Amino acid sequence: MVEQVNFDSYDGDDSKSVSLSYLFWNFLKIGSTAFGGFMALVSVIENIIVGKRKLLTHEDMLDGISLASVLPGPLAANVVAYVGYRLRGGWGALMTTTAVLLPSFALVTGLAHIYTTTSQDNSTLDSVFAGFIPAVIAIIFSAAYRMSQKAVTGWKEIAILLASAIILANVDKKSDIGLYIPVILIAVSGLIGWFLYRHRVERDLSKNANSSPQKQFNWKSIGIPLTILVVCLLLYLVPLPLAQNSLAKLATTFAGMSLTLFGGGYVAIPIIEQVVVHTYDWLTLPEFGSAIAVGQITPGPILISAAFIGYKVQGIMGALVSTFAIFAPPALLMVTMSNILEHIKQSVFIQAALKGVRPAVIGMIFIAGIVLAQTAPLHWASLLIFAASLIGIWRFKLEVVLIIPLAGLIGLLLY
To answer: Where are the domains of the chain?
Structure first.
């Protein structure tokens, strides 16, 4: 296991045989073709890195997935950063993450440019994006339901889910506290999770405890990265005299938000909606739905929608800054925490807190879907697209990358 976080550290005997150019070109190809979400991306990585090159083991990949699941940020991008770090240290993490996001970033910014320059006077494009909204709502509800099947198993989880949903639905989103509500809900639900589940988690961990002693770690080796992350979070939570549409505001907002997103890309929807729509008025709700839709049709993580939002605010530089800000802090946390992976896996507090956070987040996702549904065109086609999308997802197991374009085509024909 790597002992310190730096841009020149390697892990494992095979890592020295992997060039940075190899990592870049292979992950660029992965980022261009791995449609189908988190597990599709991980499966492709495992096929190349574990199956063909045998640079990591299956156990290494499972460790990376486990770590990504308990840390904030996009699961897929975090696993990519973990693999790059294990193979070529910090430079490897930078190379793999950049390469895997590059194709999606290019696609999203291109579509954002088309949207922002033509949608105001182009009824055809308006109809296409109007068709996206009901499909996105169906995708959000489906994702929340799938997540609830594992995370909501009893009355306690149902109570947390409902409380989170009711609070988010009734808070004044334009108020000064609106910005902090998602963060407060996550923090409080984590404490509730610790209170309710700590004894059960402790028993489960003791049953599965490894008899071998845990490796010691040096807190100094992760001190600087953790300090950077704390600063990012504080810059997000503490009001600063920054121009609302400035690049600095985009950077601090997305960097701070990225550290509150536990549980994958769909978790980001209600949190980002609160900030970019209700707090800063960067996008309208229909525009936000379009941003999510555009992010869904790329092979990258859902959070690549940040590029669309940034482009709307500050053009190409806004897209670059927003994308870097929302992916960099979680990736840095991922490679930092990989040094203490065993300690995190055995942490009663973290594991119990997540049992409380997960149902709260699911409740927030349901409410985000309901709020977005209020922006769908009042037209019978909206119900048709919504129902067809649900059937496509549940009955025919269609990928999102197919559903979104088809919904846009139907919108073009029917609206």
So the answer is: 101-414
